[in-house]
From TrEMBL:
It comes from the Eukaryota. SUPFAM superfamilies: Aquaporin-like. PROSITE patterns: MIP. It comes from Thamnophis sirtalis. Gene3D superfamilies: Glycerol uptake facilitator protein (1.20.1080.10). It is a multi-pass membrane protein. This is Aquaporin-2-like isoform X2. The chain crosses the membrane at residues 9-29, 41-62, 83-107, 147-170. The gene is LOC106556933. GO terms for biological process: carbon dioxide transport. Belongs to the MIP/aquaporin (TC 1.A.8) family. It is found in: Membrane. The keyword Transit peptide does not apply. GO terms for molecular function: nitrate transmembrane transporter activity; water channel activity. Keywords: Membrane, Transmembrane, Transmembrane helix, Transport.
Length: 212
């Protein structure tokens, strides 16, 4: 963990998650507010997806562009990120959700902002992103049924991660490697170099003759 926390790239990635989540929430929530004409479901869907596409283009090379705490948890279960990175990403995403909702609240008239697009229905206008639901809830102080939009996405993320990483595309990582990834001490580049050196050392004579 200390090795990861000492990296500037790590903090750059955490900031990127905050920034892109704020952008996603700002534009996404803006598309569900009651402007002079109430936006259609199609308009809202297009806006959310375009906002997500822009966010991914901004940060996928820096942080992986998770945007969503549920996605980050899925990456953790699949041994793709460390525990400390998961915690920092989730905190950054929630902070980004609050920032995005706060900026939107500040720049929209009172008769337009309404309840800031807070999800209040079980099956309609739902959110698969806890950060998107948490941000406006904090700004308006309305946490009614907030747990639904945490439990649902997180359960879905866990099931999807297990299904993909252990059934559909089984990842043959040894336990020691998974543990080092969890701790944040895993060095993928170093391991790759070691494997390449070992492969060169064990190259058989027939293989050498064949290559010559």
């Amino acid at each position: 963990m200390c090795k990861e926390l000492a990296s500037i790239a790590f903090y750059r990635a955490v900031f990127a998650e905050l920034l892109i989540t704020a952008i996603y929430v700002f534009f996404g929530l803006g598309s569900v507010l009651d402007w002079p004409e109430t936006p259609s479901i199609l308009q809202t869907a297009i806006t959310f997806n375009l906002a997500a596409a822009v966010a991914v283009q901004i940060a996928w090379q820096v942080s992986g562009a998770h945007i969503n705490p549920a996605v980050t948890v899925a990456f953790l279960l699949g041994s793709r990120v460390s525990l400390v990175r998961t915690v920092c990403y989730v905190v950054a995403q929630l902070a980004g959700g609050i920032v995005g909702a706060a900026v939107l609240y500040a720049v929209t008239p009172g008769n337009v902002r309404g309840n800031m697009g807070i999800n209040k229905h079980y099956y309609t206008r739902c959110s698969m992103n806890p950060a998107r639901s948490f941000g406006p809830a904090v700004i308006t102080g309305d946490f009614l049924q907030q747990w639904i939009f945490w439990v649902g996405p997180l359960i879905g993320a866990v099931l999807a991660s297990v299904l993909y990483n252990f059934v559909i595309y089984y990842d043959h990582k040894p336990f020691s490697q998974r543990l080092s990834i969890l701790k944040g001490s895993y060095d993928g580049e170093e391991l790759k170099a070691q494997e390449e050196n070992a492969q060169k050392e064990t190259l058989s004579l027939p293989s050498l003759v064949h290559r010559l």
